[in-house]
Description:
By secondary structure, the protein is α/β, with parallel strands linked by helices. Helix 7 runs parallel beside helix 8 (about 195-200). It is elongated, with a radius of gyration of 30 Å.
Amino acid sequence: xxxxxxxxxxxxxxxxxxxxxxxxxxxxxxxxxxxxxxxxxxxxxxxxxxxxxxxxxxxxxxxxxxxxxxxxxxxxxxxxxxxxxxxxxxxxxxxxxxxxxxxxxxxxxxxxxxxxxxxxxxxxxxxxxxxxxxxxxxxxxxxxxxxxxxxxxxxxxxxxxxxxxxxxxxxxxxxxxxxxxxxxxxxxxxxxxxxxxxxxxxxxxxxxxxxxxxxxxxxxxxxxxxxxxxxxxxxxxxxxxxxxxxxxxxxxxxxxxxxxxxxxxxxxxxxxxxxxxxxxxxxxxxxxxxxxxxxxxx
Length: 298
């Protein structure tokens, strides 16, 4: 057998053992390994920036477990408010992506669901919701536009007329000083003669938003969405009195504990009394009968 024949046989055997696709995959694996060595945070003599401590990670994961509806921005604000840190939403997102696994069947438990059985311009609006027996209830919400503080809620079961509208406003603003202006939309309910007379007696000037443009009344519209998502969609109520109690508890949580983007992560009131918690020693405080659980100083 000549040398050329031997070379041909060896080439054929080699082509049978190693295919071109195998070489390509092997080359791709080498390239990937090369860049892993170059840019991996493990190994090398130059350490990267130090990330959050284990205590911070545990606190972030725990607040997400207890409040699954909180987003990364909201979680970062609540952690910064409780512990005096300066985390951003991207850091929280990376931590949750690596350490948080959502529990199946999110939302409040049945125990939680069944256990619910100050300023110159105020914004006012009305919205409707239904009880567990499907009876319609109207809710008036009054918001201080400067501080984003909830002044109060007024509740009415059934239809609303001028007399009931004035009563709801008086209930929502009880024990509060009167503003110079109130902002309302063009709902026909705010056209009642009794309503306008009531404002004249109180020397309050009414400012109307643009017709059919909800964005011209943004703060109170957003508040209504928050009340629906965070409270009414998560709990039942039986009567108007039961609804008033739940709204009162939500008002306290919203004003004193809930962080707000427009106030740089601070609640509307009560920030001066908030103590910075220690990551080694803190407790979880329940709000609205367990709907919200926030870390606080022990």
